[in-house]
Amino acid sequence: MKVFTILYDKALIWSQHKRAPAILSGVSFAESVIFPIPVDVMLAPMAIAQPSRAMYFALLTTIFSVLGGMAGYLLGYLAFEPLVLPALEYFGRMDTFELAQSWFMDWGFWVIFLAGFSPIPYKVFTVTAGVMSIAFLPFVLASIIGRGMRFFLVAWLMRWGGPIMEKHLRKHMDTIGWAVVILAIAAYFLLR
Asked: How far is CA 86 from the centre of its chain?
């Protein structure tokens, strides 16, 4: 089934839209707080479609992702009991929250960097950082470094690879898409 190839082709078309940078910014912000789909699925096609603007797109993604992370931090810091705790209990995610807390106790700053760079759900750690009152400036710094490295790497690879990368990416899009789904499911069970 070519589900991801169809979505990829649509994303390439959407990436040419005049409001694509604004949409990318909004998705980047939301993905750091609540949105479940990684923003890379929008960044990569935009960087391929407009390679001369790839680094600009990476910068936008980084800025708005970090701003979203800061909003997640504030959500955890200011609204844990009235909003976050009931949501965690409703969705049965207290174990994930407790695991994130233990990772912060063990690794501190490095957890935000790792969550920012890897497929680990960054949003879980932004809210948890706020709940635990992790020092804000190191949190922001780790977010900038981790998210920036990730998004600039994606944009650079797409720009560097150009049409050849696009051809290979499209050819293997369904394999990559299903691999990401499997990794997300594995991360879900790991964090459970």
From this structure: 24
Total domains in the chain come to 1
The angle that helices 173-191 and 94-107 make with each other, rounded to 10 degrees, is 90
- 37-80: per-residue pLDDT in tens? 788 878 988 898 888 999 999 999 999 999 999 999 999 999 98
Give the model's pLDDT for residue 116. 82
Q: Which two tokens stand for residue 41?
A: 């699925």
List of residues 6+ apart from 119 with CB closer than 8 A: 38, 180, 183, 184, 187
CA atoms 68, 73, 75, 76: torsion sign: positive
Question: Is the pTM here over 0.85, yes or no?
Answer: no
Domain range for 19 is: 3-191
Residue 42 CB neighbour total at 10 angstroms: 21
Q: Integer distance in angstroms from the first to the last C-alpha of the chain?
A: 29
> 73: which DSSP letter?
H
Q: What is the maximum alpha-carbon separation in the chain?
A: 51
Alpha helices, DSSP H, located in 32-121: 40-49, 54-78, 85-90, 94-107, 109-117
Residue 190, pLDDT score? 67
